[in-house]
Amino acid sequence: MSRAATPYESGDVVATPDGRGVVLATRAEGFSFPQEGHDHADVEASPERPAFVVALEEGGSATYREGALEPTTFGETDLPEPKDERVTDVVDEEVDSGDRLPEGMDRREALEYWSDLGGSWSACVSDREDELGEQEAEAQCTAIKDLLSGTERWREHF
Question: Region (Disordered) spans which residues (predicted)?
Fold first, then answer.
């Protein structure tokens, strides 16, 4: 996975045409993004034109270009209005995170937690493993990213 030099990195809180979210991944090469059912959208990306996977506050995730994002915070009430539209449809499948999520964690708390960690699954595991052990920390962080992504199919693609 290539990394582009962009103003947005994993963990950044952004406004999108679909509302507030947290950047889950920045892609500088083409990739396949899950869509409804078992479909995928092929997303073109390059270092000059990266794509950003964003977990949305209202649910699911989608892919955007830089012009469709504006920096914001969780405390901001008047979100900026980005210029562009998203690249892919929002994917928001039934995800069975069930009892693997930290007790009492809702979507908003998961977004804030993920942002605080810099949007990294491995940072999540490092943060949780002293308390839970490595295997349970990996399961819990996977459940959090499943919830934020709105799909379990991120594991194959971003």
Answer: 62-87
Is there a single domain that holds both residue 18 and residue 88?
A: yes
Residue with tokens 């709105």: 150
Domain presence at residue 73: yes
Q: How many CB atoms lie within 10 A of CB 119?
A: 24
What is the token pair recorded at 88?
Answer: 């892919």
Specify if 144 maps to a domain: yes
Which 3 state secondary structure label does DSSP give 156? helix
Alpha carbon dihedral 4, 74, 76, 50, in 10-degree steps, equals 10
pLDDT tens column, 17-42? 999 999 999 999 999 999 988 888 99
Domain with 68, as residue range(s), is 13-93
User: Is the pLDDT assigned to residue 75 strictly greater than 80?
Assistant: yes
pTM of the model: 0.89
Structure tokens at 69: 């994002």
